[in-house]
Amino acid sequence: MTPVLILISALCALAVIYPYVIYPRILRRLPTRPVTPVLGHHTSVTLLFCAYNEEASIPEKLANIEVLKARHPELEVLAFDDGSSDQTRQMLLDRPDLVQLEEGGGRNGKAHGMKRMAARATGEIIVFTDANVILREDALSNLMAWYADPQVGGVCGSLHYLDDDSSATATATVGSRYWRMEEALKAEESRTGNVMGADGSIFSLRRSLYPEFPDTVLDDLTVSMAAVFAGKRLLKVADVIAYERLVSDRSDEIARKIRIAARAYHTHLFLQPQLRQMAAQDRFKYRSRKIIRWFGGGFLTLGALAGLAATFSIHPILGGLAMLVVLGLGGLAWRQTTGIAAGVTEIVIALLATQVGVIRAMRGQVYRVWTPAKSR
């Protein structure tokens, strides 16, 4: 029995690290499918973002839009207010020279808002971003250059975090390091063909490819994957840069992970017919990047239980000591806010929170609305 338990524990450990260690190494062995941007290529662009109680972010956002419109006077900017209870709506209404406001009349959710704005957009390219995200001044010029190739259906930009320093909390530090790894992984996926979905902070799509979908799905994943389903390229590029502040509070990050995971898995179920029709390489990428990662918390839990059971089968005292050590270290690490132990704790929490979100989605729970993290 003990060898079986050890094998289970080892396989679970392998499954946990596969998306982060093994999958990237496989991608590096795949051939490059190059796309060359054409600097100076011009096309019409509409910039969209949704906002809910973002009064702290709106002044900086409006200043950023002003800079972008100075460089691109024809830029169309649409904003959706999802029933804010603070000054967000009024602050946007006060700048009709910069933003056209779409009002939701209550809480309807981001997907609903994006669909309404996309239906109103006139640009050939729709750029999706968040209310708390700032685009670099040359972001749109660089974005247009990639669309010179008609085979490019969507382009994901690069998100840089503003709070990436040694004084950050463990939650912020782990989030920053995880994101750098995620960006590198997306770059490899893009080099070899297609990225498996976009992050909502900064991505774009040809308006002609914009899909239909219910309000309950993760619109970032649904909209970006429309490029892949249409047989076009979905790229991740390094020169379309946006900036955002990190979530520094653990409870904010746990809630965010659960919500995103639940919506992502719900979206996966909605997209299944189209996912099955993807090319073999894209199906491999999707399973490696998405599905295995969603169940990392389950693999971690099963592997830990199997390992403890193995120590108990060797000797009950050894098993008891192992359990006490695990519980003691876990309790100690939970109280830490900086350092290696706190970092490991944040990784474990992220895996478990993601698993919780997936389980909730499996049980039929859906998340339609969102609340901005207070600790950004």
Structural summary, described in words:
- It contains 12 helices and 8 strands.
- With 376 residues, the protein is of the alpha/beta class.
- Helix 2 links the parallel strand 1 (45-51) and strand 2.
- Helix 10 packs antiparallel against helix 11 and helix 10 crosses helix 12 (340-362).
- The longest helix is centred in the first third of the chain and has 26 residues, at 2-27.
- The protein is globular.
N- to C-terminal separation?
49 Å
Q: Please count the beta strands (DSSP E, at least 2 residues each).
A: 8
Structural class: alpha/beta
Q: Overall 3D geometry?
A: globular
Multimer state: single chain
Main beta sheet: 8 strands, mixed
Topology:
Elements: H1 2-27, E1 45-51, H2 58-71, E2 76-81, H3 88-93, E3 100-103, H4 110-120, E4 125-130, E5 134-135, H5 139-146, E6 152-161, H6 170-191, E7 202-206, H7 219-229, E8 233-244, H8 250-275, H9 280-294, H10 296-314, H11 316-334, H12 340-362
Parallel strand pairs: 1-2, 1-4, 2-3, 6-8
Antiparallel strand pairs: 4-7, 5-8, 6-7
